[in-house]
Amino acid sequence: MSAGAPLVESKGLSWALDAYVIGAAATPDSRFFVCSLGDGTVRVLDLTDAAKGFTAYQIHKGGSLCFAPDIEAGSHLSGGDDGKLVKVKLDGSTEIIADLGRKWIEHVTSHPDAGFRAYASGKEAYVLGKKKGDEPRKITLETSVGGLAINPKGKRIAIAHYNAVNLYWLAAKDGQPQVLPWKGSHLQTTWSPDGDYVVTAMQENALHGWRLSDGQHFRMQGYAAKIRAMSFPKRGHLLATGGADTVICWPFTGGGPMGKEPSEFGGMVNGPPVTAVLAHPKLDAIAAGFENGKVIVGQPGSTRVMPIVTPAKDKEPSAVSVLAWTPDGDRLLAGTEAGDVHVVDFRSLA
Amino acid sequence: MTAQIPVTVLTGYLGAGKTTLLNRVLSENHGKKFAVIVNEFGEIGIDSDLVVGADEEVFEMNNGCICCTVRGDLIRIIGGLLKRKGTFDAILVETTGLADPAPVAQTFFADEEVKKRTKLDSVLTVVDAKHVMQRLEDSPEAADQIAFADVLLLNKVDAVTADELAIVERKLRALNPFAKIHKTQRCEIGLDKILDQGSFDLQRIIEIKPEFLGDDHNHHHHGHDHDHDHGHDHHDHNEMKHYHDEDMDSVSLSSTKPLNPGKFDSWINDVLMSKGPTILRAKGILNLADADNRYVFQAVHMMSEGAFAGPWPAKDKRNSRMVFIGRDLDAEALKQGFTACQMA
């Protein structure tokens, strides 16, 4: 079991930003953390002088609803309830990528290497290449988009909606999607690193997955809460998920998780559910955040867990909404629904 | 624990006066800031970033059971609104005249995140006094919306005669014996009468009084549908009222004898399991044997909840009351089942 003081106390910094942390990402050079918040700001932290804290830029009139790195290194995309998808540079300068008026931009993702961005509002999804002045390709679905994910090669996009996930080729201007049907409302979606599996988290407390190479599909259930987070490590040997009182990791080696038991780590029986998970970019370690604000780093199957943040005792606990690693794996950011942000430096532990 | 944000659902047929009411809620100075989820922006006179468009997407959960249908768009929109908490105090959801109100209500019980952060306050249906009879003839949704309501705003009363109004009111009562009815012109009503009603709050459901035609105006009495027990029941027997309106029914049950808790529990579970799809709403205030407090029960289709809610008012007799509203209800079977729950 975990022991000792949480790492944030000796190797970290914490801030109270006072608004829901929607999304966070590190720049490819691992120098900056950037996050978007429910108050419509995008905040930038320079890790070479982290003690100075975040610089805030007001981007949206209302709140930010989604966030992703842009295809241009160092820039980020924030979609808001003002209908705007805004590209934000590290110095706070902005460019409006899309303006959908009174509609909310609820999902955004990008693939910097392939040069594609995708965003969605209601039943409409848009794919935008890197060429300036290009019109986005508009894809209209029968039902509202629950999640977007571009595959690791940057060739296809999975769009989760009600009763199916549709797969489209990013470079195509039109064409019929490959439809992966399954009854129910599909929300977040992700690809395995080898691109063979598509997995969605559903409105029910369950995951659904498809293996593209042979069309098999499978259901993973037994969760106590809605699965708000899932993450494949780079090796792709497992899928770490939230939604239970421990981090549930489904094996994806040797033919996928069908008929197999998941392994788990962290948490307490009947404790608060896991609300965020993110695999370390290099090591076999997974960061997990809980509904009470606790953050840990651990390994599937191991009982040794490193405490990163313990729930604040002096205020109401708030769920971890966001985790982000720097690409070099040295630093971890955790953000909560109440706007508490912690950044921990692992370098001296290596 | 974070305070739950109250949600009022506003239904009614096109032209009944919903938009008038919505614009009043948005523009009047009542010290509350509303986030409003509308079906279309159309005539909403207020350009606020807290007015959000919805798609009325009905989702089935758990393999298509009617009782597990929810509004996917509401889950999404409310999730989005909650991410900027602190900027509004209450939510108003407008639906079209064609919408089924049940999935809207069920959304607030079925989705755990929505349930944790918001609470359904009441379903408010605006009814056009002049056209409602015709609507009831030609569209089944009109009856659903009236039957489902906690508060009925009988609007445009100036457009009908007193006799016509009495007929309309009796019709509304037949469809829905427990809703509060307010008569208005141009939806002019104190907002305190429609907001913060706590209709789904078990602790605040203090009476179920099927009042057939209120006491404050002229009406024609018809012996068979007049309620004799305005809080002072003299009959030592089991009462049942049954109002049939085409296929929409309401059944009111009452008992002066305490109920056996185990029997009641298994009976009501059985009723909801077998008849849930046809039951729109059910409410009960019950005198369970050996319990000091009132047991309050409510259901929307198969979703139900019950809890003890405070002592009986001293002056009241401990009479159990239940109301079912739904389609093709078997009144006799309900009565027999209810009667069988009484202590010997």
Question: Mind explaining what this structure looks like?
Answer:
The complex is a heterodimer of chains A (350) and B (344). Chain A is an all-beta fold and 350 residues long. Chain A has one helix at residues 7-11, and strands spanning 12-16, 21-26, 32-37, 41-46, 55-58, 64-69, 76-80, 84-88, 94-99, 107-111, 116-121, 124-128, 137-140, 147-150, 156-160, 162-169, 178-191, 197-202, 206-211, 217-221, 230-231, 238-241, 247-251, 263-265, 274-279, 286-290, 295-298, 305-309, 320-325, 331-336, 340-345. In chain A, the strands form 7 sheets. Chain A has a 7-stranded antiparallel beta sheet with strand order 14-15-16-17-18-19-20, with no helix packed on it. By secondary structure, chain B is α/β, with parallel strands linked by helices. In chain B, a hairpin with a 2-residue loop joins strand 10 (239-245) and strand 11. The longest helix of chain B is centred in the last third of the chain and has 15 residues, at 261-275. Chain B is globular. Classes of the chains: A mainly beta (350), B alpha/beta (344).
| Shape category of chain B | globular
Q: What's the N-to-C terminus distance of chain A?
A: 20 Å
Query: What percentage of residues of chain A falls in helices of 4 or more residues?
Result: under 10%
* CATH fold naming of the largest domain in chain B: Rossmann fold
**Structural class assignment of chain A:** mainly beta
Major pleated sheet of chain B: 7 strands, parallel
Elements of chain B, N to C (H/E):
EHEEEEHEHHEHHEHEEEHEEEEH
In total, the number of domains of chain B comes to 2
Assembly classification: heterodimer
Low-confidence stretches of chain B: 211-237
